[in-house]
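Reopening closed ticket. The problem is back. First fold of the pair:
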Amino acid sequence: MRNSIEVIGVIPARYESTRLPHKLLRTLCGKPLIEWVWKAASKASLLDDLIIACDDLKIKEAAEKFGAKAVMTSTKHQSGTDRIAEAIRDIEAKIVINIQADEPLMHYSVIDGLAREMVNDKAIPMATVKKKIEKEEDVNNPNIVKVVCDKNDFAIYFSRYPVPYYRDASLQKTHYKHLGIYAYTKDFLYTFKNLPSSYLEKAEKLEQLRAVEAGYKIKVIETKFESIGVDTEEDLVKVEAALLKEQQ
């Protein structure tokens, strides 16, 4: 670990969940979901520090039991961004990686890729990740967010709709899935947090559109690694099967 904290990873962990109650403490292969997320993120070599930002003592106690650093935050936050902003308020760090607490399959190289991009280009305020979509059904699934980028790999738009629309059927169709992991400069995190909720954000229910609509650039890096967010019992089964396969 380097002496100064340049990059910090934060896992915002909310105890309550509408579709899958208390999902972060549900067990996968004998360990709570949040532990798998933390273990995967811990492998990233470019993180100077990694914390779990909790809103319930049950998560904090579980996190400390498996060796994680955890901090308590307010139960009133409306988003993971708000929770992270509270958690790092008094921490001296230049770059913040927002790591989703319900994606245990997120590969550590994705975190390192984001960190490297932000460290190497100080002009970038925010970055995220895309992966080429392989299955046709995923293109039309509104729960899988798509992203389109310009020639310099900055996001033009994020949508639940299958963008781009291919009017010419002869063209080779390529769609990219947006993976919900973000990097920000610490300064921009607070700028982003304080931006008013935007029209496009409300329409698509996608927080990152707030930054796009306000005119800020979001760098998008590509990964070959798939990730599955856990929102249902079916997701738990899929992720557990994937984790078992990794351990073989």
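Second fold of the pair, where the issue appears:
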Amino acid sequence: MKQLRVVIFAKAPKAGLAKTRLIPTLGELGAAALARRLLDNKITQAILANVGAVELCMTPFDDIAWQDVMVPTSITLSDQGDGDLGERMARACKRVIDGDEGVLLIGTDCPALDATCLRQIAQKLNVADAVIVPAADGGYTALGLNRFHPLLFSDIAWSTGSVAFDTLCRLAQLGWSVRQLPMLHDIDEPADLRWLPADWPETQRA
């Protein structure tokens, strides 16, 4: 059984850069504040899950906005680098798996992807090559892998409603064993604000 590494893929929580589809509802500063809250939440949940090392994979890596993010010293920092989302995720996953670890790749957009859910993914990775948690918008909120293949990340229409389906098709094509967890909701559009925790102020804008 491989050691597991949780890799949090995150964009700098900078006004005008983060959660841009929420700017019409929350404004640039409000959208950036929510991005920061989602990031802090995901770091906390990844640590609480206690399933393996935690890494924050950042873009842009040298953005000044990162200076205001309190990242525990136990977390490794890395640069997503250049390329589209698929190229950046492929690079991170290959690096981790080449280092003889399993990878649990997550974003920051889903507050329901909590420590309990991360533990469930880790348990299923003990008996499967891959674990996927679909998102309601057709993407996925988490992808766990014990093996790497570039087919999972190339020529996929990212940010569309077919991402999870296409990824599952690619996994089937590879003949890998797969486990799928129940669908969760990302926070991307104004209508998604209703899926935030009830005590978050942004929920009142839904």
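Update: turned out to be a display glitch only; the data is intact. The first helix runs from residue 23 to 49. The mean pLDDT is 95. Please close again.
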